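QA checklist item 7 of 12: single-chain prediction sanity check.
[x] sequence parsed
[x] length recorded as 384
[x] structure emitted
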Amino acid sequence: MKRIVFILIVALTAVISCKKDKDINLDSVTISTIEPIFKSDNSIKTGAKVSVDLNKNSPFHFGICYSVDQNPTLNDVTTSNNLANGYEFESTITSGNYELDKPLYIRAYLQDKNGKIKYGNQVTAKRDLNIKINSFKDIQVGLFTVDYTVGAEFGSNLSSGICYSSSPNPTIQNSNYKKNSESGSGNLLLTSNSFYLIPAQTYYVRAYVQVIDKIYYSEQKTVKLAGFVGESGGLVFYDKGSVSNGWRYLEASKSLLKNANTEFKWSCVQNQSVNVNTSREIGTGEANSIAMKEYCNYANNAASASLDLVRDGKDDWFLPSLDEMLLLAKAAVNYDLIYLGNPGLWTSTQVNQTDGYIVYGYIQVGEEAVYKNNLFNAWPIRKY
């Protein structure tokens, strides 16, 4: 008798269970896709709210489908990490499974045991990517520096750099490029490689970010290298990138300061031990020259002779600082743009009370400390 009762109970339970599954009609279930949220690792948190308790022996398979095309279906990519929580479920679209710069269309779905599918509403995930070139700096005959920004939305697992070409829309596959040794987001500086660049050439430049195996590019900007003819007909060998403190370009005179057999001292003949407050940095040559002339206003002083020069319609010449002269010498030697001439040329940067710097450059460019009363030529420059 007990055995008969047990069999009846089991049979009745099975009937009730089948009736329960049958009573849950997919057409009567509502499903609402949850708006996506980007997480710090660039994964996307989404899911759905439904009108059936998914934790109570629900007969439905559920998840998220997504695509770069609208109205995604189960034929597109789906999630497998779905977590039921009563009348809703969560899903995560992992980073690397979608492209950051394209909108991603997302729909939740329910599928019953017969294969019938019902989709929720479509939602869209789209990040505003911040990758841009801010400016160009320190533009030389064969180099330029890029100030660019990489937004935090790219996450931490990234690398970045610049690519550049004489043709539009450069990529790291078809152009010169340089990877930044610094990782992460924020404002970054990167100087181009020094080879294969042509003086006075205009280059198209884009910043790039690589996240796993996907690459994202900024809008392109153009930069023209130094090495072109300036206002006085001389060589422009340096470009700051923008005007500040009243100037942007450094231009060399078309010829050396020397006339006939004249060469110049750094300081006065009578007083070699002159302590002048000078600097070596780019942009300081004019101030150095003025300070030198104040201490020693003598015609055979290289700075005075440069400041007093009137040439090619310009009267704003000065003796270059050490770093300015090194840039000019490198343009002369490395790119054969101008003839450097004398093995030693004065700069307006002193070493100490008795010595000043010269720059030399036959096969290679270098600097040397020499007595201020030695005779060397000079190459005047100007800024505008």
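[x] summary fact logged: Residues 4-22 have pLDDT under 50 and may be disordered.
[ ] second reviewer sign-off
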